[in-house]
């Protein structure tokens, strides 16, 4: 089920859009606290964003720019500010489409379906994975906690990627080693231990502690 985040401060419109898209079997949420839309975006981890331009605190252009720092998720602007300059601005800020208010909900659904189909027909993966406030960016191999951000090495990223994609499940050492070195040839078991120790130390420097759990004799997991 594809998830859609509705960023619209007119609650009548937001609820109308939600009701319509829910009927098309999308999972939707609309923003009620407009102070930190990026945090709400990360928490919900949507496949598409519907974004108004005129919003409390900061406008839609600002939030589009902030989202683009962490994700390539498709964004459709919805606004009564339909002058050519606003449409051009929306595209330049990273928007994928623009719908002028007032709009027909059937047109909105058609645009949503088309954009989701184009974006995810070959890959349904998201650009980020969030867990307990920790954000793993699959696009640029970084990990973030709050305002702290770290660039990961190839092996560090691969370890976290497989663990984050299997949260709550133990991943065996053999599986991780095969993923890291992509080879069936023998790799010294201690090599993985060294990599894991370095990774834990590195992420602890930005306040990420006890993220990776060791299951003795079995493997590792993120709970």
TrEMBL record:
Ranges of the DNA-binding region feature: 126-223
Domain Response regulatory: residue ranges: 3-116
UniProt keyword annotations, A-Z: DNA-binding, Phosphoprotein, Transcription, Transcription regulation
Entry GO MF terms: phosphorelay response regulator activity; transcription cis-regulatory region binding
Residues modified as 4-aspartylphosphate: 52
OmpR/PhoB-type domain mapped to chain residues: 126-223
Entry keyword Cytoplasm: no
InterPro entries for this protein: CheY-like_superfamily, OmpR/PhoB-type_DNA-bd, Sig_transdc_resp-reg_C-effctor, Sig_transdc_resp-reg_receiver, WalR-like, WH-like_DNA-bd_sf
GO cellular component, one term: cytosol
Pfam families membership: Response_reg, Trans_reg_C
Alphabetized SUPFAM superfamilies for the sequence: C-terminal effector domain of the bipartite response regulators (SSF46894), CheY-like (SSF52172)
Top-rank lineage group of the source organism: Bacteria
GO biological process: regulation of DNA-templated transcription
Stated role: May play the central regulatory role in sporulation. It may be an element of the effector pathway responsible for the activation of sporulation genes in response to nutritional stress. Spo0A may act in concert with spo0H (a sigma factor) to control the expression of some genes that are critical to the sporulation process.
UniProt name for this protein: Stage 0 sporulation protein A homolog
Organism: Clostridium fermenticellae
């Amino acid at each position: 089920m594809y998830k859609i985040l509705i960023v619209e401060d007119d609650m009548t419109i937001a609820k109308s859009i939600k009701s319509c898209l829910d009927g098309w079997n999308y999972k939707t949420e609309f923003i009620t606290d407009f102070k930190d839309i990026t945090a709400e975006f990360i928490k919900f981890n949507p496949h598409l964003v519907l974004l108004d331009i005129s919003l409390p605190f900061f406008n839609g252009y600002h939030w589009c720019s902030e989202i683009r720092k962490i994700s390539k998720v498709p964004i459709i602007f919805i606004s009564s500010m339909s002058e050519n300059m606003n449409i051009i601005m929306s595209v330049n800020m990273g928007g994928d489409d623009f719908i002028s208010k007032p709009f027909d909900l059937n047109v909105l659904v058609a645009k949503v379906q088309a954009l989701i189909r184009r974006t995810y027909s070959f890959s349904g993966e998201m650009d980020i994975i969030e867990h307990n406030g920790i954000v793993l960016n699959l696009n640029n191999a970084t990990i973030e906690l709050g305002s702290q951000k770290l660039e990961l090495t190839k092996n560090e990223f691969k370890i976290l990627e497989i663990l984050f994609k299997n949260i709550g499940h133990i991943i065996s050492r053999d599986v991780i080693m095969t993923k890291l070195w992509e080879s069936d040839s023998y790799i010294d078991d201690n090599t993985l231990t060294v990599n894991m120790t370095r990774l834990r130390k590195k992420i602890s420097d930005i306040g990420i502690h006890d993220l990776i759990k060791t299951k003795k004799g079995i493997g590792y997991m993120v709970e």
